[in-house]
Amino acid sequence: MNFKFPTPYSVLMGVILVAAIATWILPAGQYDTITYLENSDTFELRSAGETTTLPANQQTLDELGILIQLDKFKEGEFTKPLSVPDTYKTVESDPQGILDVFLAPIKGMYQVIDIVMLVLIIGGFIGVFNSSGALDRGVSYLARILKGRESLLIVIVTSLIAIGGTTFGMAEETLAFYPILVPVFLAAGYDLLVPVAVIFIGSSIGTMASTTNPFATIIASNAAGINWTIGLYSRLAMLILGTIVSITYIVRYANRAKKDPTKSLLYGLNIHSPFKDIDTSASSHLDLKTVLLLSLFGGTFLFMIIGVAFYGWWLEEMTVLFLIASILLGILMRSSEKEFVAHFIDGAKDLLGVSLIIGIARGVTIIMNDGMISDTILYYSVQMVEGTSGFVFLPLLLVVFFVMGFFISSSSGLAVVSMPIMSSLAQIIGVPVEEIVNAYQFGFGIMLFITPAGLILPSLAMVNVNYDKWIKFIWPLLVILAFLSLLTLWAGLLI
User: How many Cβ atoms are within 10 Å of 240's Cβ, its own excluded?
Assistant: First the structure.
């Protein structure tokens, strides 16, 4: 009997179960945390369930061993509690049972309802647009233009998305690009792994080598007590090298699989994708209505990027944008109310599975937090790297952040938990603090490529590709990126 890899839902429930079992094995523990209260201009120190109010001054931070300037708190740089170095203590354990395992994805859905709504509205938007037939005509037209130069599409799109990732942390926003890019890559003769690789690797390599990303670089640097520009050249070098290597890797696979379909990792699989059945034989002539529809379609994504990058938009604003764009499409198509609603609902249904995966993935974090083992894992990690030399410390730290990224899939969340502790440890060992920030970004970034609790499973669900195929595709690239990361960290130590 042929083995079939489990669905993303089963994979995530398995991860939740493993996390729950870990809460029975590992001791529960917590670091003290500090939070700035703007209304009262004080610090709130939480220690073993007890709350203490402290004056909001630099002396308080110095006494706690926190290397951050007071103005960073008052400027609103930290909205999440920061861990206090050397304060770890065991607490009464709260092992997570079977009921908790099944409650976790439900709680996760509630916590990520903003992302879920965005995905469903995008699905509705795509459903309305697809009903016009403009996508078929547009993709057919583009396929003719790119004939013989399809690899250029991989280079351009990967580079642009990497820029979005490194500058403003493009992550969840990439889910919006699958409907528009998947048909284009399929029309170019590539398999379904290629658009996933282009979009997801582009975003991940950008996040991994963040330069101005406020959710990674800036928060981590602030939490470590240094300016975010320190160590920037190392991250720029990693961004350039990582992007070049990633593009080369994708192009090599894409061209090999295109030339010989038996070389595709998806060869022989009957995969249904909501974006696969596109008529690329449509006329190359684009009438005025088609041009208007395509302009509105593409302009919506452009408007989203501008809003996020320059006006501080987040999930609610993006969701409203796609809802308004859906209505405008319906008006331009002269759809009746009944037709519009039917197309919108059909499109939303196609992405319902993606929404469920996002909610279930958040359940992993909930189990870890409720079982109070996240800080325990961090504490043991600190013990592992403490007392080593710089050249040994950095590779170990890379591994630590890689592992921690599995349990804490939020870049900002991992930063505020680990940076105050690791930066203090770095000073003792004699390692430049900026290399701690870089190790955090590189290690966490590598885990982003594969962690089930991140965006890879929702991304794969967009095209109905199994997780095992992705792992088989990505692992050689991860080995290369890990090697480049280590060389970059050692170079930063020597220079």
Answer: 12
Q: And the tokens for 174?
A: 């990439």
The answer to whether the beta carbons of residues 52 and 32 sit under 8 Å apart is no
CB 432 within 8 A of CB 390: no
Residue 23 lies in a domain: no
Token readout for 5 is 């890899």
Output the pTM of the full model. 0.81
* Average pLDDT for the chain: 85
Measured between alpha carbons, how far is 242 from 44 in angstroms, rounded to an integer? 41
Could you give the number of structural domains in the chain? Answer: 1
pLDDT at position 172 over 70: yes
Q: What pLDDT digit, counting tens, does each position of 357-397 carry?
A: 888 888 888 998 899 888 898 888 888 888 788 788 899 99
Cα–Cα distance, 19 to 101 (Å, whole number): 9
The contacts found for 332-340 with CB under 8 angstroms, 24 or more apart, are 332/289, 332/292, 332/293, 332/296, 333/128, 333/131, 333/132, 333/293, 335/128, 335/131, 339/131, 340/128
Residue from 444, 451, 478 nearest 210 by CA = 444
Q: Which helix (H) or strand (E) holds 43?
A: strand 42-47
pLDDT tens, position by position, 240-280:
999 999 999 999 999 999 999 899 998 877 766 655 455 55
Q: Letter for the amino acid at 293?
A: L
**Does residue 3 have a pLDDT over 70?**
no
**103-117, 146-160, 313-327: lowest mean pLDDT where?**
146-160
C-alpha–C-alpha distance, residues 354 and 455, integer Å: 10
Q: Please check whether residue 90 lies inside any domain of the structure.
A: no
pLDDT band at 1 (very low <50, low <70, confident <90, very high): very low
Nearest residue to 435 (alpha-carbon basis) of 390, 384, 480: 390
Residue 188 sits in which domain range? 97-495
String of DSSP letters for 344-363:
HHHHHHHTHHHHHHHHHHHH
Give the separation between CA 345 and CA 417, rounded to whole angstroms.
Answer: 41
The answer to whether residues 44 and 51 touch, using CB atoms and an 8 Å cutoff, is: yes
Residue 68 inside a domain? The answer is no
Distance CA 322, CA 492 (A): 43
Beta bridge partners of 30: 89
Whether residue 373 lies inside any domain: the answer is yes
